[in-house]
Amino acid sequence: MISTVAVLSDIHGVLPALDRVLAEPAVAAAELIVVTGDHTWGPQPTEVLDRLVSLGDRAVLVRGNADRELLQMSRGVDVGLADDPLSVWGAAQLSGDHQRLLDTMPEQVTLDLDGFGPVRFCHATPRDDEEVVLVDSRLDRWTEVLADLPPEVTTVVCGHTHMPFVRLAEGRLIVNPGSVGLLYGRTGAHWAILSAGAVTLSRTLLDLDTLCRQLVERSGFPGVAQWLDDYVRTPAGDREAIATFGPRDGR
């Protein structure tokens, strides 16, 4: 049984933020690192994949919707993102090895953690890599989303919305560590530690000027400076997230 897990999610091709989180003492000391998807769709998609692979057996990688879409686009599949320059560019960056990695990456995994029992790790929800649930989703919605989970799975760890939270729903503990690469609510890369039945939501402070300068210097994406202005320099907040995701949450 695993004693301590560090959970990262939604790196979105921001390698400097990932490296900063991996250097955190609590992450470095964790027995296992689980990354719950959307490693790509960002300015350094392949560099992030390579860094995660370099962690070897110490890391468990779950595929997110952005990873699936980029993989499909790299093989000529129309997923409705032909007008998104970052998706088109990102898909063209994937080598054969990256395609094979994403092909074999599971969409969810269940691991036995000390103090938690079986824990389901997924990107969005246990049944869909794009489905939206939020910290204040109504209980009927949680009942629907969690209906197919085995009763012994009493903890679900997800990502997708970039909104860090911990809550109980239908007798199950729901954990979203937040996003490493796309900031939410405040400056910093969000992540979580699961250990001895307790969840700790954590944040790594980032100097945005330094982060953006590094990405402009190191990314091959032609529109990286504008992308950073749109998605990194101004973190999304609760109001924006709920306005965007609310209709997909059935509101």
Structural features, described:
The chain has 251 residues and is α/β, with parallel strands linked by helices. It has a single domain, classed as Metallo-dependent phosphatases (Purple Acid Phosphatase, chain A, domain 2), CATH 3.60.21.10. Helices cover 34% and strands 21% of the residues. Helix 3 links the parallel strand 2 and strand 3. Helix 4 crosses helix 5. The protein is globular. The N and C termini lie far apart (39 Å).
Output mean pLDDT: 96
Q: Alpha-carbon distance between the termini?
A: 39 Å
Number of domains: 1
The helix fraction, in percent, is 25-40%
Structural class: alpha/beta
Radius of gyration: 17 Å
The secondary-structure element order is EHHEHEHHHEEHEEEEEHHH
Q: Describe the main β-sheet briefly.
A: 5 strands, mixed
- What is the name of the CATH topology? Purple Acid Phosphatase, chain A, domain 2
**Could you give the order of strands across the largest sheet?**
3-2-1-9-10
Shape descriptor? globular
How many individual β-strands? 10
- CATH homologous superfamily designation: Metallo-dependent phosphatases
CATH class: Alpha Beta
Helical segment count? 10
Task: Bin the strand percentage.
Answer: 15-25%
Contiguous low-pLDDT stretches (5 residues minimum) are none
Using the 3D structure, state the CATH architecture.
4-Layer Sandwich
Please outline the helices and strands.
Elements: E1 4-8, H1 15-22, H2 25-29, E2 32-36, H3 45-53, E3 59-62, H4 65-74, H5 85-93, H6 96-104, E4 108-113, E5 117-122, H7 139-146, E6 155-157, E7 165-169, E8 172-176, E9 189-195, E10 198-204, H8 208-218, H9 224-231, H10 238-245
Helix pairs in contact: 4-5
